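User: Could you walk me through two proteins back to back? I'd like the raw sequence and the structure tokens for each, with a short line separating them so I can tell where one ends and the next begins.

Assistant: Of course. Protein one, sequence then structure:
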Amino acid sequence: MTGTGSELTEGEHERFCNLIYRVAGIRIPGTKRVMVATRVRKRLKATGISSFSAYLNFLNSAAGAGEMPMFLDVMTTNETYFYRDPHHYDWFDQTFLPEVIQRARLRKRPRSLRVWSAASSTGEELYSIALKVVGHRPELNGWKLTLLGTDLSGAVLEAARAGVYDDRALHLVGDEERRAYFTHDPVARTWTLSREVQAAATFKTHNLLEPLNEEPFDCIFIKNVLIYFDAESKKTVVQHLLAALAKGGYLVVGPSEGIYTMLGALTKHKSWLYQKPA
């Protein structure tokens, strides 16, 4: 049976899933056919294409190259909030930053700091990092700071650059930080991040299956994304993460990434914290 805008066949669902895996390394279960159909319909409406099969053909054609990012935008799930896994940020604020600052004072490292939030979604993770860095600004005066957030989806990165969030995204942010670094709009029920914190962060599009091609990072956060990748894709991502991590640098991982057996080249400090040998 041929698929239309109202029905997605099993074969077409499989083709969409294979395409997503080939391009992004993400596995969509066969049980998610309704979800896939619902999200693809948004692109059918936007492009004016009348059927799932025609849209698949378009995506696989040279003419559909510009549509692929839009397709991936609607297919990737992006849910996060400030200070998700609070102990990660407590470590970053109370242990990592003081350690880096002290080593620089002793001239054991340059006065620079590079942090990468991989799969940063709408920016809450990188901005959580930025809030901690800004909190140490007197000690970091004159430092070269690079806080980079990357994601496959251009749409979520645009939202990150806007720096506007709802109450749910800030439910773990304390009143003092809200007053210092956010402007509240009680009518829209939104919170806009200060220019100071926004200016500390940079965002760009990146596929984790590809090398980042940046200078090494002192700390990399990758959380709540690799659960969607299979073993081979995870190995590729880990290879790229290790290549991007500076000697002595730290890798912070989420509780469900499933890459722990692949991190043998790193020293394990906690179930979520690993360090590259110096």
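----
Protein two, same layout:
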Amino acid sequence: MATAPPEDQRRLLEVQALDTRAQQLAHQRKTLPALATLAELDGRIADLRASLVESRTRVADLKRELTKAESDVEQVRNRAERDQQRLDAGGVSAKDAVALTDELGSLATRQAALEEIELDVMERLEAHEDALSTVEAANEELVAEKTKIEAERDAGWAAIDAQVQAMVGERAKAVDGLDAALVTLYEKIRAQLGGTGAAVLNGNRCEGCRMDLPPGDLATIRNAAPDAVVRCEECGRILVRVAGASTGAAAG
């Protein structure tokens, strides 16, 4: 059976308390409420991004369609102006004048049809631009909210990291001077058992696994020398014997 000074064994509980607190802080860092909020916001932003891309694409397509419609109208209008100028200038034969007049009639009909198309495209573009503005505003609102929550997350992390940093110094002081073999054993057990390597023996209960020890195990522990490093037969943790221990004194 390994041995270590009784005082070192009791001081090991201070180390365990600091290690447990460090685990709690690590858990808090991973489960800050801001992180869940950010995940929810990221999902909403991702969903909105698809609508944003679709809306922007549709507006761009309609702008190209409007440009073509305007060009078509302009071409017909220019052709009509040239025909009208030839008629107004005179110097054309009667046959050509009739042909120009007929063409002007056709061009007027064509221009009216193209202007209807142009107007339809303009109306659809206006509607899609309004929709795009709405989606962009919603996206900007979500991005601004995300920036705010990120600041809250960073502040939360900074506060936790400051506590962890302070505890690193406290732990170094707590470990300083302890029996090296005892600390090595403690670290090994702690790594194997999820962070708790030492616990108080409170009456007949191991506060590490919260189980009552059999009478035979208790007798063995009671008969062990004060410097003997005893371990729980149920969970394997180092059991620290502390006079007057209560459940509240447990580490773990």
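The chain has five helices and five strands.

Let me know if you want the two compared in more detail.
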